[in-house]
Amino acid sequence: MRIVIGSDHAGFDLKEALRQWLHDAGHEVIDVGTDSEASCDYPVFGAAVAREVASGDADRGVAVCGSGLGICMAANKIPGVRAAVLRTAEDAEMSRRHNDANVACFGGRVTAVAEAEHALSVFLGTDFEGGRHERRVDLLAELDAEGR
Ligand code: RB5
Q1: Residue 98 among the catalytic residues
Q2: Which CATH superfamily groups domain 2-146?
Q3: What DSSP designation does 59 have?
Q4: Secondary structure of 75-112 in HEC code, one letter for each residue
Q5: Annotation says 40 is catalytic
Q6: Residue 65 is inside which H or E element, if any?
Q7: For residue 8, which atom of ligand 1 is closest to its CA?
Q8: How many angstroms separate the alpha carbon of residue 2 from the centre of ligand 1?
Q9: Are 128 and 90 in contact (CB under 8 A)?
């Protein structure tokens, strides 16, 4: 898959680890930064990840900040993006099966590298169930239009 990844300073270490892990797993990775632990603003990088996914330039996105929360909020401001904070593999599975999530968000201060890698592997390997969930995801898309 073609995967875009980004983080703020608080997510930088985990972002770097996940970037390498994705590369080693054979994915094409687009890194939109940040590129150091110097303080920066998570909305900038959440939006950068989300825009790549919304435009179709990337199949999926990965966004990391300290908690995973702020960068997820930023990513979800971009129409077409369904970003979810993944604290567990169960979150990853349900975000894909029921919500067709296309951006995985992690908290570098709360989730260890191995746990994030596991959740990300589930996220990338789980299909959307469709069916009754399709209608609900379509309703999410209507909310995107409301925000314009
Ligand atoms: C940065 O200190 C921190 O606030 C940010 O990484 C994130 O956790 C916000 O939601």
Answers
A1: yes
A2: Sugar-phosphate isomerase, RpiB/LacA/LacB (3.40.1400.10)
A3: S
A4: HCCCCCCCEEECCCHHHHHHHHHCCCCCEEEEECCCCC
A5: no
A6: strand 60-65
A7: 6
A8: 26
A9: no
> What is the CB neighbour count within 10 angstroms for residue 30?
17
Closest protein CA for atom 10 of ligand 1 = 70
Residue extents of the structural domains in the chain: 2-146
By DSSP bridging, strand 103-107 and strand 83-85 are parallel
Q: Helix (H, G, I), strand (E, B), or coil: what is residue 27?
A: coil
Q: What is the pLDDT of residue 108?
A: 98
Handedness of CA 31, 76, 69, 98 (dihedral sign): negative
What does the pLDDT average to over 114-139? Answer: 98
Of these residues, 23, 27, 40, 98, which one is catalytic? 98
Structure confidence at residue 130 as a pLDDT band (50, 70, 90): very high
pLDDT digits (tens, 9 = 90+) for 96-121: 999 999 999 999 999 999 999 999 99
End-to-end CA distance of the chain: 30
Other C-beta atoms closer than 10 Å to the C-beta of 53 total: 25
Residues touching ligand 1 (Cβ under 6 Å) are 8, 10, 42, 65-67, 69-70
* Torsion sign across C-alpha atoms 113, 2, 44, 33: positive
